[in-house]
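User: Structure please.
Assistant: Input sequence and predicted structure:
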Amino acid sequence: MGYPTVRPRRLRRTETIRELVRETRLDPRKLVQPLFVCPGSGVVRAIASMPDCAQMSVDRVVEDCRGLSDLGLQNVILFGIPESKDPTGSGAVDDRGVVPEAVRAIKAALPGMLVWCDICLCEYTDHGHCGILKGETIDNDATLPRLTAMALACAKAGADVVAPSDMMDGRVAAIREALDAAAFESVAIMSYTAKYASSYYGPFREAAHSAPGFGDRRSHQMDARNRREAVLEASLDVEEGADILMVKPALAYLDVVAELRAAFPQPLAVYNVSGEYSMVKAAAARGWIDERAVVLENWHSFRRAGADIIITYHARQALAQGWL
């Protein structure tokens, strides 16, 4: 038997060669850091299930954003923990609520930072569901005006991107129409296009105080066993005016990421969610894995599948510790 003439190992021989032919690269400009905004002043409240993450008052969020900007990270997405909650999530549409206040403060301090706002009622309703209830069922169409008002409050405060995560039918069209009618046509929409009813969200629900008081979210979030449905959701979002599509969670749905990448030209994001983050943190704390290596491997898998943008709780740590 002769020696092989085709030897792929030739291009793996040294780091310089490997870097030359590397197919997938990470860029800190493609990372988005989630931040949790709470009432008060000087507040930094650790989130037990998400090490190195915290609920922060507006002043501390601005301080954190300065540090992120110094590290080269220019994208944050805000989630709000309101002063009080009620059945209709009225705090979500308050122009003086914690998220609009944070948007204004960040933009005043760091005009070049892109500020994204999550648009959903689950953090603002006393029942923890993502919309207006009719009995124990979410009323899709009654929820849309509340979501559009929330998006408008964020846009008026200076948000660059609004990101509806509620999974109500027609919400992208309703928000786009409202934004355009109010002369906010330049505000982009990133739709949580394929948001699955996932077991990976547990730590987030502690962080955002958003666990449902009864039942679950399977009536509106996607079934984890479905893939073709994600293409339908993406088609509708594009038709309704979404500028960026997103798949959530990331790791367990890379096939969906690849499917949407092949089918649509719009920028595609993934959300490296709280459960994925906390599992890595827990294993790293026990010395079972190399945290940096695992995080970068995960991120490369997102990029390899076709994601352009990565929303991740690890962004700050990765840049602060020189992982990229």
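Residues 26-320 form a domain with the TIM Barrel fold (CATH 3.20.20.70).
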